[in-house]
From TrEMBL:
It comes from Flavobacterium arsenatis. Pfam families: Polysacc_deac_1. Residues 68-245 form the NodB homology domain. It comes from the Bacteria. The chain crosses the membrane at residues 7-24, 30-47. InterPro entries: Glyco_hydro/deAcase_b/a-brl (IPR011330), NODB_dom (IPR002509), Polysacc_deacetylase_ArnD (IPR050248). CDD domains: CE4_NodB_like_6s_7s (cd10917). This is Peptidoglycan/xylan/chitin deacetylase (PgdA/CDA1 family). Keywords: Membrane, Transmembrane, Transmembrane helix.
Amino acid sequence: MLKHKTITFFCVSILVMMLVLSFLSEVKWWYFLLLFLFWLVMTVWGSSDIRLGYFIKTYCNNQDEKKRRIALTFDDGPHPMTEKVLEILRKHNAKATFFCIGTQIEKYPDIFKRIIEEGHTIGNHSYSHSNSFGIFSTEKVTEEILHTNTIIEQLSGSKVLFFRPPFGVTNPRIAKAILDTKHYVIGWNNRSLDTVIKEEAKILERVKSKVKPGGIILLHDTSLKSANVLEQILLFLKSENYTIVPVDELLNLPAYEN
């Protein structure tokens, strides 16, 4: 699954062969450039698309799921809007997974506790959710993960095992931090883009078009727009006879340390 190592090994092997050949005959300079560009494109693509599992094993769906089961996940809370999301979930008797930011938990500890009290699963979504997360050192990423874990444990009594990197970004430094802290990386295969798309109808259609058994839907519990779309998604899933389950149940993975 560590595809980055495979691609890098392949590129280095080709590079060595080209260097050897260059002593025997002329090798065009742009061959070297093409090789480098291939490695660069693969690295950038792998860093930005969590579904590839390019640097570390990621869980983005359950391809072996035979029943119509699907998971709803929410990023970036807790937030005042989380309470409306919780009300909608309770109304439809649905359990979701919330990937929470450490600073947000500190701001809204009561809302965080309510998520747990209503039977939803909690995951770690870093402490700061910084726009610079992708260039953090391994030490800094580790600090962010462990700090948030501590906050969660103090309020819930549980040690979380699920981690979702901000923006779904991974790289060798983030991968090492995750391996060191022994977390499962949880991604998605149905991204709503509810923080980007303005029209609720377009968000809904995007999600509906990607719904499949074993899927993981990514939403955010930070806006009224997303809460409104959630209600419509739940109605759609019910009409299609889907059962909504937490990520740990869908993937058969432990969400918390025993």
